[in-house]
Amino acid sequence: MNHSVRPADDAIEKTVDQYADMLFRLCFTILGSSADAEDAVSDTFLRYLTKAPEFHSPDHEKAWLIRVAVNISKDMLRARKRHGCICLDEISQYVQTPEESTILEEVLLLPEKYKTVLYLFYIEGYQTGEIGRMLAISPAAVRKRLQYGREMLRMQYGKDGSK
What we know:
This protein is mostly helical. It has helices spanning about 10-30, 35-50, 60-80, 100-110, 110-125, 130-135, 140-155. α1 crosses α3 (about 60-80) and α2 packs across α3 (about 60-80). It is globular, with a radius of gyration of 16 Å.
């Protein structure tokens, strides 16, 4: 039994307009490549067209899209064995200041499970419980990943802000 409901064309366009940039930034944070991030976002919206459940609220829809985008990005990492291959030269397109560029470079060097929770928490503003539901982990695991991710950033960047 298929529980997916194909949204109307205008609803699809609205959803793409509303979430494409955010999903791209999330996928770029995980994958480190704009081409791969574009592929992941395209695959996410394809899955939205073919397998989206009936959503109870806009927040439910957004959380579902984030979960799918994260899973697709993880699958791409596993399939391409690209751990550690990050296109740092592309970063300048997505940041406003040199400081943001430096921070994003450091975040991109983290393992995927840490950079995903850091992105969702600090950039998208989700609470630990919400992130846990999206990633199918406990809020305690989210908090631990945030803690370890911050510790790794401090070690990479230096406690005084210098490398």
